[in-house]
Amino acid sequence: MRHKHALPVAALLLGTSALTGTVPATAATHDKASAPLRILLTNDDGYDAPGIRLMFQRLTSAGYDVTIVAPLTNQSGAGTKMMSATTVTVRHPEPRVWAVDGTPGDAVSFGLAEAFAGRAPDLVISGTNFGPNVAGLAIHSGTVGGAVAALESGVPAIAVSTGGLAVPVPQLVLNAMRPTNDFTVKLIDRLRAHAKHGPLLPPGVGLNVDHPVIGPDGTGTASGAAVTTQDPQPFLKADYTDSGDGTWKVDVKVVPQPAEKGGDAEAVAADKVSITPISPNWNTGPAGFAGTAALLAGLRP
Q1: Contact (Cβ atoms closer than 8 angstroms) between residue 78 and residue 44
Q2: What whole-number distance in Å separates Cα of residue 71 and Cα of residue 103?
């Protein structure tokens, strides 16, 4: 999901290392005189998962106007899937919380059409996800899928994840979500300061943010932040064993390869926050188009 707008986004976020570091939970660096930033908050772990609730608390403490519109159940790995059923079950269990019985894309679609009917939110945030969404993992991520659904509708979006490629220790990842959310507030404020009265991000461009787990208790500060590309390695490998009865046992393993220089996997492995520009149109950019055009030159039906 690499994007040709990576350089403009990199310029926008120039000096991202200054974004790292914790922020007091009461801090709100945006202009209090302006209208509160309106945010649709979604995820793929479910509307009541710890990650989305911690993010809700952090964003509201920063002064943002936040509404959760997220899947009713865990939808990890749903990617960009959106169902085509003729009905969908939606619950409204508490003020500012909607639970949609579908994928993250379905939740965002409902949220834009109903919860934010008549006036789109300023930003969609998807997360905080439990575990990383770098390299090939991002392709299958429901967290990223929720952000893509927003981008398809012309709404700026940021996917946020916490964790590295090592086997996650649940409590450490949960602890690390707090510095992740602090970083997210700093990032939003940076975008808002540059946007003035315009959109927070260039049209059609979103961000996939991956925050590492730092320190023995997970609450440490990342060593910096980097605007990255998406590492092309697939990471996941499936082994199949025939059970002899028409079924096959599936064992999915994470098989990391050497990290690509400048990629998201390299940044997270170096204890840096990775910020990868993403696009809903899977654009390979000018080089990919030119190479494919040359390969197929003269082809006729």
Answers
A1: yes
A2: 6
The pair of structure tokens assigned to 26 is 């009461």
Q: Is 65 helix (H, G, I), strand (E, B) or coil?
A: strand
Residues 6+ apart with CB under 8 A from 172: 213, 217, 218
Q: List C-alpha distances in Å: 189 to 19, 62, 98, 206, 207.
A: 10, 10, 26, 15, 14
Q: What pTM was estimated for this model as a whole?
A: 0.89
In the block, tokens 């730092």 appear at 214
| Each residue's pLDDT tens digit, 95-114 | 999 999 999 999 999 999 99
From 197, 263, 214, select the one nearest 31 (Cα to Cα): 197
Give the whole-angstrom CA distance, residue 125 versus residue 147.
Answer: 7
Alpha carbons 286 and 209: distance in angstroms, whole number? 25
**Cis amide linkage into residue 80, ω under 30° from 0:** no
Closest CA to 161 of 104, 242, 120: 104
Rounded CA separation 169/161 (Å): 15
Q: How many whole angstroms separate alpha carbon 81 and alpha carbon 106?
A: 8
DSSP 3-state percent helix, strand, coil across the chain (nearest 5): 30, 25, 45
Q: Give SS3 for 241.
A: strand
Instruction: Please give the C-alpha separations between residue 133 and each of 100, 112, 149, 189, in angstroms, as whole numbers.
Output: 23, 24, 17, 23
User: What tens digit of pLDDT does each residue of 199-218 get?
Assistant: 899 988 999 999 999 999 99
Q: Taking CA 59 as the corner, what is the angle to CA 74 and CA 94, rounded to the nearest 5 degrees?
A: 55
